[in-house]
Amino acid sequence: MRSILRSISIVSILILVAIGSGCTDRLDDENEESDEYSIYYIEKSYLINETGYTREGNSTVILQNITAQNIMRISFILTWNDTHTWPPEQETRVWVPYVPQPDTFSLSVKGPNGSEVSFDSNYKLENTSYDGSIKINASLNELPGNRTIFAGSPEDAFNQTMVPDGIGIWEINITCIDAPGTGPGGFVGPGSDMGNHWELHVTIYSYEVNITKI
Prior knowledge:
Radius of gyration: 31 Å
Number of strands: 10
CATH topology: Jelly Rolls
CATH architecture: Sandwich
Structural class: alpha+beta
């Protein structure tokens, strides 16, 4: 009976040793397949400018394809100045003295499908001014802190740090709600305000990933 117990004990010890050896081998294999990389980030910004003309009561839709990776936030700024500069089809008409009045524009922004977008104010804003501007900020991600990671290759390390939020088509809607300037005596014709020119400035704030093998 003692011989049987002694044999069972020896077999148990051998099994435990084998299991321990197997675990060590697996850990060693994982370490052999991965390298340690140092990750640090550099902030960058890109500016996209658009110009156009929108008639009173009409809207201009811009479908802006944004391809930058690791976006932190995007700023949309619409500016306009109430002038009597006509769209191309009116430029050949006889000029009539212009009486300016403040114009009203609205700006709205929609992010790509699936993107988590947080606006610092309403996604749609309106302003009435002779020399106006509207600004909408869309926040997506914070700048990460520098760190180290384990990866099988530099490409694998890069893929671990890439953030796709914000990539895709952004819908920007510019509407000229009211453009009440007229010619003398309220005359509506070549000297009246049919709409307004505008400028749109889109600034993309992102970060670049720098990877160094340790």
